[in-house]
Specification:
alpha/beta; five-stranded parallel β-sheet; globular
Length: 842
């Protein structure tokens, strides 16, 4: 059994093994099954995956599988990367042929001490397999046939024989992602002829696993492969559970299959490690979210807790604890820049807190033009002391090769009918698609998804592709208006106006049940009890994603499209009347303001929102779900601002009644996030800016400040103290008394606060400075302040060294920096049709 050495002793016997080619082999001299002998020079030089089974204890054994679907679990002990993993599990299925070629060049080049460079179109015409060449005319050919059969691989190499002979290599190396038996290798050696000097120059999947174990830095550098590792995926999913992230294995793997490694990834890694905060900016659809997610998954794979957040407040709450990476997608879409300036000041506070903490990472995404507008309009975001620009990484400026690889990976991932692929590859206008100024990964994903394309004939595919590139707005408009029914459109509207980016199905069902009948009655449409389930089924995968019982838009462009689509005053009025939560009503109002309705139209809409005032007065902001407290609706402070805006617009008694109810008995009580709105409203009322409101609202709000202050930390109390000082002429002693009580509580809870801060010396220094200032504001005894200062100083002096980096971020290798001609382009895509043709012939 050449090339294999497997121990089968009675103790620690490795079963079950599902390697069909081992069946029926005779027993070795020891009498134990599966003991091999007669190793070749290849196994002496680099070993094999199976050889390393000899020294694995029984308790570390796992089930092995080299066939069947899913990841291939190879029992190879891996080096430590912060985790003790008894075996290395490698899943080549998420790699495209191009990814596998790059892996083969790096890994075999390292093992053989050779440097391989990508080989352009040559004597082989670039068909079925690309080559690399090194010193002495050594040729490496990669065949990624993971989902195919050995018969297909053998037939492909028969066709390659004349091309290989024409290259006249001094040495020929073959890399394949298939797992081959010794007889299979012998059969390929006979086909390849004299160019293959030794059967050991055939590198199979099993050899790759052994080499990956010996060169873990190469494994980490190829992050698509590393993240596809079963153990790493489990860690990512486990890490995501801390932040209640809706992630699934299939979702991660689907995104990995189409991702193209490029220079933006290592640049982002380097900047994030160095500065701990990264703002990924770029045009719509260039892959900002994909890059952010891949970075976050990489940290999660190293054991960091993953916390996707949808507000600054949720980010501040996630700060305490162990190593954490925060992910805030489209963060400026959640910051109201027209609101009082203290709102975006919280964002700057969060950024500063993360930048000082070696155990925190913060990844944010936004569109470039939105970021620039925000910096111009916000004094906090433009603060020179913050220097926001140093955290920004602009992405989306890729080379022609990367653009081509993005399209190639989407076509290779499967699903698109082969006639459409052949029509695209054979069309002379393919370079026009790659070079189009509106080219983006989002459009590529759409045009390679059969669910989105509908019934597009092969002859019209390229024309359709170019038409969408010319007018990207058609991407959702055509499908929304012509390919789905009214019940589907109504469900999308319900998702748009629901609270949060991920909507629980029961919550969405209630919103749909309120909206759907109203819209059907308004437009003379019929409806039935099964419309919700039917619409959900139709929209999943096309417009919506459903994960763990929660629904979200397939990508941000769906929300962008709906924002421009939902501008009709009559439609918005019906949506207002269907409000099922305070957040829904707020979204309708914000949508109307963004649509720039006429003043009389806004007045009419505010009147239609009058029934929703009761929702604002009664719905709780927090609920207990799955053992954790989660936000269920907008804050009390946001509701106060909303009710004042509606009352100012149409002076309905429902709004004043709701304001009074919220001031006197807010559902769930006031919290820290409400304090700014409360203070603003008190000042407006007492300054005479809101004449006509019932008496006593301001007094009730001032009395409630004690509840809000009790939730604040030292930094927030300092900021509120400044606001109180500026508004002292409008506030009574109750507000100052509430602040003083909150400050005393901060000193009394110092031990608990220091425990939450942990080993972050900068955070302890900041807290020390804040307490010193608070002691002065509250006029606390010197003894109380000095005792707190000594306690913090003692904690700092006793700090142990904490790691400043997660220490495992791979230095990824990009695909850029080389010319990519039209011949290269045709060579690249030709393999797609050749592989399909080979599969059909065999």
């Amino acid at each position: 059994m050449r090339g294999w050495h497997v121990q089968g002793a009675r103790k620690g016997r490795l079963l079950p093994l599902r390697w069909p080619w081992l069946a029926g082999r005779t027993r070795a001299r020891s009498g134990h099954p599966l003991r091999a002998s007669k190793r070749t020079s290849a196994t002496r030089r680099r070993g094999t995956a199976c050889e390393r089974l000899e020294h694995i204890p029984r308790q570390d054994c796992r089930r092995l599988s080299l066939d069947g679907p899913g990841p291939r679990l190879y029992s190879v002990p891996s080096r430590r990367t912060g985790y003790e993993e008894p075996f290395l599990s490698v899943n080549f299925r998420n790699l495209s042929p191009l990814d596998f070629e790059a892996l083969a060049r790096d890994l075999i080049g390292r093992a053989e001490s050779l440097r391989f460079d990508a080989f352009g179109p040559g004597p082989d015409g670039g068909a079925d397999g690309r080559h690399a060449k090194a010193e002495g005319k050594t040729i490496l050919q990669a065949k990624h046939y993971i989902g195919s059969t050995f018969a297909n691989l053998r037939a492909a190499l028969r066709r390659e024989r004349t091309k290989i002979d024409a290259l006249k290599p001094d040495r020929y190396l073959l890399a394949t992602s298939q797992s081959l038996s010794p007889p299979n290798k012998d059969a390929l050696a006979e086909i390849l002829g004299p160019a293959l000097q030794d059967v050991a120059d055939i590198f199979t999947a099993d050899d790759f696993v052994g080499l990956l174990r010996d060169h873990p830095d190469v494994h980490r550098a190829h992050t698509k492969l590393w993240l596809s590792d079963t153990a790493v995926l489990e860690r990512v999913l486990h890490a995501a559970s801390f932040g209640f992230a809706d992630l699934s294995r299939s979702e991660i793997e689907d995104k990995l299959k189409v991702y193209v490694q490029n220079d933006s990834f290592p640049a982002a890694q380097q900047q994030l490690d160095a500065r701990r905060v990264l703002i990924i900016a770029g045009a719509p659809g260039v892959g900002k979210t994909t890059l952010a997610e891949k970075l976050a998954w990489t940290y999660a794979g190293d054991g960091w807790e993953l916390h996707p957040i949808d507000s600054v407040d949720s980010g501040l709450k996630a700060l305490p604890g162990g190593r954490k990476v925060l992910l805030f997608d489209d963060f400026l879409g959640e910051i109201e820049l027209d609101a009082p300036p203290n709102k975006d000041s919280k964002l700057t506070k969060l950024i500063r807190a993360v930048a000082k903490n070696p155990d925190r990472r913060f990844i944010l995404t936004t569109r470039s033009y939105v970021l620039e507008a925000a910096r111009q309009r916000s004094e906090h975001l433009s603060d020179p002391a913050l220097d926001l620009v140093r955290y920004v990484l602009d992405v989306g400026v890729y080379t022609r090769r990367v653009w081509a690889h993005i399209l190639y990976n989407h076509l290779n991932a499967g699903g698109l009918p082969s006639p459409l692929i052949e029509a695209l590859v054979s069309d002379t206008r393919l370079p026009m698609i790659i070079d189009h100024p509106n080219y983006s990964p989002r459009i590529i994903a759409w045009m390679t998804d059969p669910l989105q394309l509908g019934e597009v004939a092969a002859a019209a595919y390229v024309d359709t592709f170019l038409a969408l590139l010319q007018n990207p707005g058609r991407m959702w408009r055509t499908a929304y208006r012509t390919r789905i029914g009214p019940h589907c459109r109504h469900l999308l509207i319900a998702v748009y106006f629901s609270f949060g980016r991920n909507v629980a199905i029961p919550v969405l069902r209630r919103g749909f049940a309120a909206l759907h009948p109203k819209l059907c009655a308004k437009y003379g449409l019929s409806h039935g009890p099964q419309d919700f389930e039917a619409a959900l089924k139709i929209l999943e995968g096309g417009f919506l994603t459903i994960t763990n019982g929660r629904v979200t838009f397939l990508n941000p462009s769906v929300r962008d499209f709906l924002k421009g689509e939902l501008e009709d005053p009559a439609l918005l009025g019906a949506c207002a009347e269907a409000s099922t939560s305070a957040a829904w009503a707020a979204e309708v109002w914000n949508q109307a303001r963004g649509a720039k309705l006429a003043p009389d139209e806004l007045t009419s809409l505010a009147s239609q929102l009058a029934p929703a005032a009761q929702l604002l007065a009664t719905r709780r902001t927090l609920v207990l779900s799955n053992g954790a407290i989660q936000e269920a609706d907008i804050s009390i402070g946001a509701r106060l601002e909303l009710l004042v805006a509606w009352w100012t617009q149409c002076n309905r008694p429902e709004f004043t009644a709701a304001l009074q109810a919220l001031a006197e008995a807010p559902p769930g009580g006031f919290r820290d996030v409400d304090a700014d709105a409360m203070l603003d409203l008190i000042v407006q009322i007492r300054a005479g800016d809101l004449e006509g409101l019932p008496q006593g609202i301001d007094d009730a709000l001032e009395a409630g400040l004690a509840q809000a202050f009790a939730y604040m930390n030292a930094d927030e109390l300092c900021r509120v103290a400044e606001s109180l000082a500026e508004s002292s002429g409008y506030l009574g002693p109750a507000a100052q008394d509430a602040l003083t009580d909150a400050i005393r509580g901060e000193f009394a809870n110092l031990d608990e606060v220091m425990k939450d801060i942990g080993g972050d010396e900068d955070a302890l220094e900041d807290h020390r400075a804040a307490l010193c200032e608070l002691g002065r504001i509250a006029k606390l005894p010197d003894l109380t302040v000095d005792r707190a200062m000594r306690a913090i100083d003692e904690r700092i002096s006793n700090l142990e060294d904490y790691p400043t980096s997660h220490g495992g971020t791979p230095a990824a290798r990009g695909l850029q920096g080389e010319p990519f001609s039209n011949d290269d382009l045709r060579s690249l895509f030709a393999s797609l049709t050749d592989d399909a043709r080979a599969s059909s012939e065999d």
